[in-house]
Design goal:
Blueprint: H1 2-5, H2 16-37, H3 43-66, H4 74-106
């Protein structure tokens, strides 16, 4: 998602369409895996995983809408693009760190 929504794209790299399809598939795979395995996690971790999925989805939808010329004017597309980038680049890393910490605890790693 971060690569897809980045303002700078690698020359000669995958097209935005290819990146969009890959990011959407990865998000779907994450949700499918989570839904199948959520029974093994405590409620707090499930809440964080659901929050992670929600931010992924919100960012992806906002990004896709920002690229649609039929949805909004240019100013609204820019706002949606910025909202998508914020969700992916600022909000998700914080939630991800919380999830990683919860998994480390589940695996028995002691904090120093």
């Amino acid at each position: 998602m971060t690569r897809l929504m980045s303002q700078t794209q690698v020359k000669g790299g995958p097209s935005l369409e290819e990146q969009d399809q890959k990011a959407g598939k990865a998000a779907d795979d994450f949700l499918e895996y989570y839904l199948y395995h959520q029974i093994y996690f405590d409620r707090s971790l499930c809440d964080r995983l659901q929050a992670f999925n929600g931010k992924l989805y919100d960012g992806w939808v906002a990004f896709r809408m920002s690229k649609s010329p039929t949805i909004d004017s240019g100013a609204h597309r820019n706002e949606r693009s910025q909202a998508a980038w914020k969700a992916i680049s600022e909000d998700l890393p914080m939630i991800r760190r919380e999830i990683e910490s919860a998994f480390r605890s589940l695996l028995g790693q002691k904090t120093l």
